[in-house]
Amino acid sequence: MSEAKVKKRSRVMKPFIKYVNVRHVFPTRYVVDLDLRKAVDEADLVDPERKVEVKKNLKKLFEDRYLNQKEVTSEKKAAGSAYFFQKLRF
After folding, report:
1. pLDDT digits (tens, 9 = 90+) for 24-76
2. Are 18 and 67 in contact (CB under 8 A)?
3. Distance (Å, rounded) from C-alpha 75 to C-alpha 64?
4. Nearest CA to 30 among 64, 90, 79, 68?
């Protein structure tokens, strides 16, 4: 596929923000090197306008990471990012 077509198809992602109890997070063998704690702050989630801005920033972060998957240094992180961006099969 051409680079323009890949960029167009990668804009489909729609991030969401949700509070999750840490004890309910299931650890896996996959690791993705995205630091979301810097992008999302609890104070930003109170204001609805600020929450929209945070979602836009997350979308940009995810799209950049999706388009630059080949630049990952670690093999383990590369496998994790490939798994993270894989289509779910229900």
Report:
1. 777 777 777 777 888 888 888 888 899 999 999 988 888 888 888 777 777 77
2. no
3. 19
4. 79
